[in-house]
């Protein structure tokens, strides 16, 4: 997913057009967009630590803290990141960074996590997913967005919530597409390593593949579930994901 940036042209487009071009098109348009090499979340982590190490806690640092939160870094994680970096970058720099980080993540700790999660996305969380509760560990929520042409549903998982292993069946099509819209989660296919999910990630799930998906243990998570049209489509629900295997993911 390409990162769109106009800050350079907005601030310096007339005064320093080349600098503005390099900032918007190269740094963000090319370097930040190389998600096949490093995820946006990891780039945010590296950038925050690099700026903190230089003692740069100005508006650019606040921008990158905000971006880090949008890219899935939680309050608990930024606290641990800055604490770890303090031993290498300097204690006073960490104090300054923490003051700004508290503002960016204000309300997330000790507040209404569900309400905070809702603010991060345009789609409603919806009602408790009681109709499928037997196939989930933890509380999930469901909001239908479209039930004609292609079924589209916003599925939200509270921290630690995940669905059971399951398989989508279908003839001549079928399966499911997940479009991640907020928070941080996991997707795993049987016999493969789990894949971390962040806003903007897309997961294509063909028929016949045993899999599960859900939230990280310390983060709310929402994805759009798109039903791929097909013939004789059905879901086969299987066993729950074991606590032992889930806890390994962090």
Brief write-up:
GO terms for molecular function: peroxiredoxin activity. This protein is an alpha+beta fold.
SSE blueprint and pairings:
Elements: H1 7-12, H2 17-31, H3 40-53, H4 59-70, H5 75-89, H6 91-104, H7 113-119, E1 127-128, E2 136-137, E3 140-146, E4 152-157, E5 162-163, E6 166-171, E7 176-183, E8 185-189, E9 195-197, E10 202-205, E11 211-215, E12 221-227, E13 231-237, H8 243-247
Antiparallel strand pairs: 1-3, 2-5, 3-4, 4-12, 6-13, 7-10, 7-12, 8-9, 8-11
Domain Carboxymuconolactone decarboxylase-like: 17-103
InterPro entries: AhpD-like (IPR029032), CMD-like (IPR003779), Cupin_2 (IPR013096), HNL-like_cupin (IPR047263), RmlC-like_jellyroll (IPR014710), RmlC_Cupin_sf (IPR011051)
Protein name: Carboxymuconolactone decarboxylase family protein
Task: Provide key terms for this protein.
250 residues, alpha+beta, AhpD-like, 3-stranded antiparallel beta sheet, 13 strands, globular, peroxiredoxin activity, Cupin_2, RmlC-like_jellyroll
Structure write-up:
GO terms for molecular function: peroxiredoxin activity. It holds the Pfam family CMD. This is Carboxymuconolactone decarboxylase family protein. Strands 1-3-4-12-7-10 form a six-stranded antiparallel β-sheet, with no helix packed on it. Strands 9-8-11 form a three-stranded antiparallel β-sheet, with no helix packed on it. A two-stranded antiparallel ribbon has the order 2-5. It is 35% helix and 26% strand. A hairpin with a 5-residue loop joins strand 8 and strand 9. The chain contains eight helices and 13 strands. The protein is globular. With 250 residues, it is an alpha+beta fold. The chain folds into two domains: 77 residues, AhpD-like; 131 residues, Jelly Rolls (Sandwich). Helix 5 packs antiparallel against helix 6.
